[in-house]
Design brief:
The structure holds two protein chains of two kinds. By secondary structure, chain A is of the alpha+beta class. Chain A is about 45% helix and about 20% strand. Chain A is globular, with a radius of gyration of 18 Å. In chain A, the strands form two sheets. In chain A, strands 1-8-3-6 form a four-stranded antiparallel beta sheet. Chain B is mainly beta. Helices cover about 10% and strands about 50% of the residues of chain B. Chain B contains three helices and 26 strands. The radius of gyration of chain B is 18 Å and the shape is globular. The chains are: A alpha+beta, B mainly beta. Chains A and B meet through helix 8 of A and helix 3 of B.
């Protein structure tokens, strides 16, 4: 709900003083992106992890029939990257696009090395972030395999409380792996249950 | 009685589209020092300056969205808007009409160009304002006040200077029909070329003048052209507008509520916790349901 920057994020999560972090963060550039602008396209090579300071990004793929499948929404304070490309040198299977005018810190490999070198607690923190990411992905796979549309939706609004007001419902349905009609039905049923006028 | 001076004259910002039916310049709260606290109780002002929409069989507008914690006031200067809400209400805001919607505890609504108007297209000019509510009224029941142009109370100025149409509050004994939760004056001042009108509001009332047509001079010197907004300082009570062409000016003046403001998207509450609750309530269907 507020805009963040990478420096604030790192100081609030790592044991490091303001002055020291300022000199390190100077090595990470920040870019602004217009709504609809691509940060990465399919088959391109991704060289950065994006930390969203303002706005909203999405990572998605397009299947053979031309349908979009949204893997991640990345609002303020989220990281998004294409790992197969960044860490395994493969072309990207995904697009990363700004859904609003956005601002992102561009984290590259050298910057990660610099953080690890200068801040002893960074590696542990980075591991924790990675494990948390894996936990999130496991949970997401499990929901896609076994949960009802309503359960998927209820988990979604916990994770992303304001996204429903920032993107079209078709995108939320795409993220949840359900049709827009199912999403509409779920929301209608919830309203019938919870709306007291 | 001291003169209320002009603090700044703001030119219209780069327009942006709200949905696909409203091409607006935002004056409040972004930029120009006119943030929500400074302008309270007027916490948002989007101005669709005259813009020609081509004919469209599919009405343009904004799909289903919620509001909570304030009122929306839509003033139609040109064009026609149709709206629907989650409690089954709806209506048409025709040229000159005003729709004063108290969202308060929460509504879902959608607003589009009226179907027949959309088929013909034409000039569209509109103001949408958000009026803040005091904490005690943020949870009151939603309601509408549809004010037809013909029912707006009018005060004829002397010497054929023009007319003051009183939407809310009072101008020299003529009272507007809109009921408000806190003291607010809202007038459309239609002045003939050379016509003058004087206004008097308490010094602490936040006050702004939006010029919809023509050009005006405020206090005999500050020129404010079409589509510009004059922000008045809180340094006095009286000021004068003179039309240098035939002019239409929206005059806004309101007593600040002076409570903490926590705002995000379409919710304006007092604390961050209340905002989180508003998002939860919306996500969980507590605002009802409305088909897109």
């Amino acid at each position: 709900m507020n805009s963040f920057n990478l420096k604030t994020y790192l100081t609030s999560n790592l044991d490091i003083d303001e002055k020291e972090i300022s000199s390190i963060v100077e090595n990470c550039t920040t870019k602004t992106f217009k709504k609809d602008q691509f940060l990465l396209r399919e088959n391109e090579h991704c060289t950065h992890t994006f930390f969203v300071e303002k706005g909203l990004l999405r990572q998605y793929s397009i299947d053979e029939k031309g349908r979009e499948h949204i893997l991640t929404f990345a609002p303020e304070n989220w990281f998004v990257t294409n790992r197969e490309s960044t860490y395994f040198n493969q072309p990207s299977a995904y697009y990363i696009q700004a859904l609003e005018d956005s601002k992102a810190a561009m984290i590259n490999e050298e910057f990660i090395h610099l953080l690890s070198e200068k801040i002893p607690s960074f590696s542990d923190f980075n591991n924790k972030l990675l494990h948390n990411h894996i936990r999130h992905l496991q949970n997401r796979v499990n929901l896609l395999l076994s949960a009802t549309a309503e359960d998927r939706y209820l988990q979604f609004i916990k994770m992303y409380p304001d996204i429903l007001l920032r993107v079209p419902q078709t995108m939320v349905a795409s993220y949840l792996g359900i049709t827009p009609e199912s999403l509409s039905r779920v929301r209608k049923e919830l309203a019938q249950k919870n709306f007291k006028n | 009685m001291k003169t209320k001076t002009v603090e700044l004259v703001a030119s219209p910002r780069e327009p942006h589209f709200v949905g696909d039916g409203f091409r607006v310049h935002n004056f409040i709260p972004s930029g120009y020092r006119m943030d929500m606290q400074r302008m309270d109780p007027f916490i948002m002002l989007d101005y669709n300056s005259t813009y020609n929409f081509p004919p469209s069989d599919k009405p343009k507008g904004v799909g289903v969205h919620p509001h909570k914690g304030f009122e929306t006031v839509t003033i139609a200067y040109k064009g026609k808007v149709q709206h629907h809400d989650s409690s089954g209400g709806g209506g048409i805001i025709d040229r000159g009409d005003i729709q004063w919607m108290t969202a308060a505890s929460g509504v879902l609504h959608k607003e589009y160009h009226e179907e027949e108007w959309s088929k013909k297209g034409g000039d569209f000019q509109m103001v949408q304002l958000w009026v803040n509510l005091p904490k005690k009224d943020k949870t009151s029941a939603p309601k509408y006040q549809a004010i037809k142009y013909a029912d707006i109370k009018r005060y004829e100025l002397e010497n054929k200077a023009g007319v003051i149409e009183v939407i809310a509050g009072e101008y020299k004994g003529t009272k507007g029909s809109a009921s408000t939760f806190t003291p607010i004056h809202m007038f459309n001042s239609k002045l003939n070329k050379g016509g003058k009108a004087t206004f008097e509001f308490p010094a602490n009332y936040n006050t702004a003048l939006l010029v919809l047509e023509g050009n005006i001079k405020v206090n005999g010197m500050e020129e404010t052209p079409t589509d510009h907004l004059a922000l008045m300082a809180n340094d006095g009570e009286t000021f004068e507008i003179e039309a240098t062409d035939d002019a239409v000016v929206l005059v806004l003046s309101g007593e600040p509520i002076n409570e903490p403001i926590a705002a995000h998207g379409p919710f304006v509450m007092n604390t961050k916790q209340e905002l989180i609750e508003a998002f939860n309530d919306f996500n969980n269907g507590k605002f009802g349901y409305l088909e897109d």
